[in-house]
Amino acid sequence: MDPHLASAPLAYLITFHTYGTWLPGDPRGSVDAHHRLRGTPHVGRAAGRQAASTKLLDHPPVELGPEERTIVLGTIREVCHHRGWALQAAHVRINHVHAVIQAARADHTPERVMNDLKAWATRRIVEAGLRPPGTRLWVRHGSTRHLWRPEAVEAAREYVVAGQGEDRQWATGGSGDRGSAC
């Protein structure tokens, strides 16, 4: 059976950045209305576009400190437990978050998963007194990749846990749940 005909993917790879840290025109590439479909090229470096985007920011770009990264990781675990999602791996960086999550219910789309993670993480950071209420911590959207095959889930887990460098907060799910502090 074609795995794409399954009713739901095995898991999602969710990635989202902090506010203002990856703007249109960035040398790493970006996505816009004309460059967002799978297989289409990203928008390349465009210094003028990046400068114009910088001027539109409501406040300086957000970088997460060590305590904030710890809170975000704990919140990801909390939300997954509360929603009944299986956390396969999570990695919280200074300017972005990766998570591999199995959301069993069909109405729990990857967008819902991502939005719940961002909303709850923001709430916990504000409750801890690390940011004022109303601070925008995250970009509007992010990347929501569907993982249909077990080997895709395993590759995403490996990427999230081992492919992000040393400055990290990460966790893997399952009975051997473990985490590492920065």
What report would you give on this structure?
- The chain has a single domain (3-21, 61-180), classed as Transposase IS200-like (Alpha-Beta Plaits, 2-Layer Sandwich), CATH 3.30.70.1290.
- It has four helices and six strands, in the order βααββαβαββ.
- It has 182 residues and is α+β, with helices and mostly antiparallel strands.
- 32% of the residues lie in helices and 18% in strands.
- The protein has a six-stranded antiparallel β-sheet, with helices on both faces.
- Helix 2 packs across helix 3.
- The longest helix has 18 residues, at 66-83.
- The radius of gyration is 17 Å and the shape is globular.
- The termini are far apart.
TL;DR?
The protein has 182 residues and is of the alpha+beta class.
Reported for the largest beta sheet, the result is: 6 strands, antiparallel
Count of folded domains: 1
* Topology, number of strands: 6
Give unreliable regions as ranges: 174-182
Task: Give the neighbour order of strands across the main sheet.
Answer: 4-1-3-2-5-6
Structural class, from secondary structure content? alpha+beta
The helical percent reads 25-40%
- The name of the CATH architecture is 2-Layer Sandwich
CATH class: Alpha Beta
Mean pLDDT: 79
- CATH-level-4 superfamily name: Transposase IS200-like
